[in-house]
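Re-run requested by the PI after the first attempt was lost when the workstation crashed. Everything re-entered from the original request form. Ligand of interest: (2R)-2-hydroxypentanedioic acid.
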Amino acid sequence: MSWTAKKLVDQLITVVEPSRVKIDASDLEYYGKDWSSGATPNPSAIVFPKSINEVQGLVGLANKLNFPLVPSGGRTGLSGGAVASEREVVVSFDRMNKILKFDKVDNLVTCQPGVITGDLKKFAESEGLFYPVDFASAGASQLGGNVATNAGGINVLRYGMTRDWVEGMKVITGRGELLDLNRGLKKNATGFDFRHLFIGSEGTLGFIVELTLELISPPEEPTVMLLGLQKIENTVKTLAVFKEKLSLTAFEFFSGTAMQKVIKSNELSDPFGRIYPFYALVEFENNNKDQLDVASVLFEKCIKSGYAVEGVVSQNQSQAKSLWKFREGITESIADYNPFKSDVSCRISKIPTFLQELEKISSVFSRQFEVVLFGHLGDGNIHINLLQPFQMDSQEFREECKKISKLIFESVQSLGGSISAEHGIGLIKKPYLSYSRDEAELNYMRGVKRLFDPENIMNPGKLVDI
Ligand code: 2HG
Ligand code: ZN
């Protein structure tokens, strides 16, 4: 251990007990990165606070000695928001993972930030309730990270983003102050709602140390339909047909390449016996038989209009889950191809134009790379994954991808969309932020960062620089 590293550890153990400061190479490697690719982890130490006081102590120390901190939740992020490659101290919330309090009258649950999303969902179920935010990484992601990135997922169409479920939040700001924001109130018209500044701020203003989230009554068991489509534009036409008459809980789409990868990596059987260029997955609550009848009529309409070629519908919950596997397994099934990811959104009305432009852009490079398209079409959110050919060098691949990304972002910008719908900005998207936020806005963002974190110790280098 170098003298400086020893000095740092000596300081850190004045705040947390020595067993909760790690500097072994394997821990530095594991806690120094998230699910994004590209950056090399290189933190100087990992600390595991157990209480709000300890987090406050660490932020105080970082201000005093001027060392940077990176927050670490489940590290499932895809934009490098939790990467520590500049000798930062990683603050892991793994030991702050308790559900602290549940209030039955208010339906509010108070949690430490390290609670795993799936554990909160199970807790809600045990109380006969439901936490609506859901995504493929719910088994690993932590609530603090979800809130810090305003995580989206598969139920946004019906239930909104993580932001919509945060009723209260305690944070330690970059200045080391503890703020107790909104305190579980439904109504609170007392000026600036700082809660919303911290939601989606990626740990750049302060660290979330406690959350109060709302739970609701569980929905009726959903029915899922999977449709095979010939053309990309038919995905949006199919959405319009279903949306007009049914209250949808999800409307997802994915390409034939995505289906092939999922089938292969999970050894699933092909639902139609042939691969379609595109698929639409429709989910709706089946609270009475009428809904299913309406859905059948809409399905027929899609077939007659030529939007869909064929479809299957779930008859029970296990079949519904099996159909979701084709969609939810995509990210994992392509992980070995070192994918280059874009996560963009437009208003639904602009999606047909965006998809046309995307087809034009793809036609230029699709001979070079395999393209996997999927996403939450009902929310206007498209995920574009370019797969690295096995024979191609990583560096060359990423340089080529950046050129393509630029074309995609230009198209998104011209349609008034967002270059990051739900994965955040982190390190990877930072150079492109100006495609979605203008200079005046960026200046205010920098001003907010300076206000809460004047010494630039909270996740520096992510989102915006000051
Ligand atoms: C999803 O929708 C996630 O499954 C991951 O947002 C998207 O891997 C991706 O590009
Ligand atoms: Zn997604």
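Saved to the shared folder this time. The two ends are 32 Å apart (CA to CA).
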